[in-house]
Design goal:
This protein has 13 helices and no strands. It is an all-alpha fold. This is EamA domain-containing protein.
């Protein structure tokens, strides 16, 4: 993997890790569901030209995936982060990896080998350590919301694989266009004082919203798709493990949340489990791609 690509992969991990702190900062002044609706509205403005890439017959599938991975996933995630510290949120959200494997087993018939099963058990054990003694009364609710957000993301990912293939750029564009009004309606029903909070929001809160939309959203995913076009998933997957580490580091620098012994133990268990899951998945994807390439070469020789 070229040095430039490695540095860009590190940048993506940093951008995504810092998003948790940005959500925490913005959510202190803005209702969380309204904030994510604003995020998607900003993203939609930049992604409008990509809407035409979608095939008409795929609209129903994309609308379903967008509702799950956009509206439900991010709505739950922002509500959860608003109730618990950023470091803990970043660790619990890593359940997305084992949730994806469990759903792939249930819905796609994929095999869960021993290494993956051990990884799943370790990941959930780490989260249970964090749940055992929350630092505040509302933290349990927040942590459960983050875990449900991870489950929603996993469900959307598995459905994308089962119902796809889908153009990733078109899916990103339509997710923004579909999720923004859905989240605004959700905010209108559940939250109150939206207009007052928008008027009173500081420049810091607005910068947090813009960051989640442009830097963590558009730039982060744009770079990631570009890197996927140049490198294998096996090369890139280790960088995903750096996202929660960057999230913890940024939250400690900007929010000074403090690191407890329970957080260290929970993080070590969860990230070890996720590493076992992700590296196994990466090896499987690499093997499939290598096999496909060998088949293409064989076909050409014929």
């Amino acid at each position: 993997m070229p040095l430039k690509d490695s540095l860009l992969a590190l940048l993506v991990a940093l951008l995504w890790g810092a998003q948790v702190t940005a959500v925490k900062i913005g959510g202190a002044e803005l209702p969380p569901i309204l904030m994510v609706a604003m995020r998607y509205a900003i993203m939609a403005l930049f992604l409008l030209p990509l809407l035409k890439r979608l095939k008409r017959e795929q609209f129903g599938t994309v609308a379903l995936v967008a509702t799950i991975t956009g509206t439900l996933h991010f709505g739950l995630l922002y509500c959860g982060i608003a109730r618990v510290d950023a470091s803990t949120s970043a660790i619990i959200y890593q359940l997305a990896a084992p949730f994806t494997l469990i759903l792939a087993f249930a819905l796609l018939g994929e095999v869960l080998k021993v290494q993956v099963l051990v990884g799943i058990v370790l990941a959930f054990a780490g989260v249970l350590v964090l749940l055992a003694k929350p630092s505040a009364s509302g933290s349990v609710v927040g942590m459960l919301l983050v875990a449900l957000a991870a489950l929603a993301f996993a469900l959307g990912s598995v459905l994308t694989k089962r119902l796809g293939p889908l153009d990733p750029l078109a899916l990103s564009a339509w997710t923004a266009v579909i999720a923004a009004p859905q989240l605004l309606l959700w905010s209108f029903i559940q939250e109150g004082g939206q207009w007052a909070s928008v008027q009173a929001a500081s420049a810091q809160a607005w910068w947090a919203v813009v960051y989640t939309a442009l830097s963590g959203g558009l730039l982060g995913f744009g770079l990631w798709f570009w890197l996927l076009g140049r490198n294998s998933m096996q090369q890139l997957s280790p960088y995903l493990l750096l996202v929660p580490l960057f999230a913890i580091a940024v939250s400690q620098i900007l929010l000074a949340e403090g690191i407890s012994q329970r957080l260290v133990i929970g993080a070590a268990l969860t990230l070890s489990g996720v590493a076992l899951c992700q590296l196994r998945v990466a090896q499987r994807l690499f093997s499939r791609l290598a096999g496909r390439k060998r088949q293409e070469v064989a076909d050409e020789q014929r």
